[in-house]
Amino acid sequence: xxxxxxxxxxxxVVRCGSFAEAARRLGVPPNTLSRRVQQLEAQLxxxxxxxxxxxxxxxxxxxxxxxxxxxxxxxxxxxxEELLAVNQEPSGLVRVAAPxxxxxxxxxxxxxxxxxxxxKVRVDFVLSDGRxxxxxDRIDVALRGGILExxxxxxxxVLDAGNDGxxxxxxxxxRQGVPDTLQDLAGHDCLVFxxxxxxxxxxxxxxxxxxxxxxxxxxxxxxxxxxLRKAALAGLxxxxxxxxxxxxxxxxxxxxxxxxxxxxxxxxxxxVYPSRRYLPLAVSAFMDLxxxxxxxxxELPPQTCG
Length: 306
Fold this sequence. Notes:
Number of strands: 15
Helix content: 25-40%
Order of helices and strands: HHHEEHEHHEEEEHEEEEHEHEEEH
């Protein structure tokens, strides 16, 4: 098989008119170029050019070979230049896998700003609560919460592993009162993840660092944290939710902490991607956007319930 580098060198030498000029443009010694052309001639079994110290001329075989391969070489060179341009400015398609309710907490306005700043970038979201196969689904980056299980993927942290806390709406607290102890939750409407029984066991850490648990139940359950958050905002009960999900609501007074001395350790949120070699600038820029915007959510101080 022909070495494409040797073919490209041959075309460059012919266009420059001499090995010396081609060597100057390519930044390599002239004898290196001469040796590579000789290797190409040996592979083809024919002489491509007649050369002297000052001039070179193509043989008939060399002329035919040049006509056949110069277009392909130019195409490769153009492709290389385009790739260099791509690597200097974010461009192209970024496919993102995220939870189904991603845009409930990631403001669409942030994406508007991102696309305005990078006019050559397109973003395609694959929203599902299932875990996408990054390779099979051609996903550039995926957002995942909890413990990272696939060690073959690379990851960047989006949100720290903060604590889950108990929250309720002011309307619920005004109607049902504030529980005084953890076990009092058994007598309240609690918002739990979907289960046929409508019940759940909440295991939390108390003020002394000891683990405690309570059996809770309620008339509303759902299969996403965002659904439970919305139910809490609507006054349907008390929820145990990640602080990153409720912090803005707490700051705005839409939710209030319940039994704030108890918490559950969270696992944080990461962006995972299949390879960090030659990571496209568009993907890297999108990742920076998510980290910058969502990371700022952790810096908002919540209100407390008196």
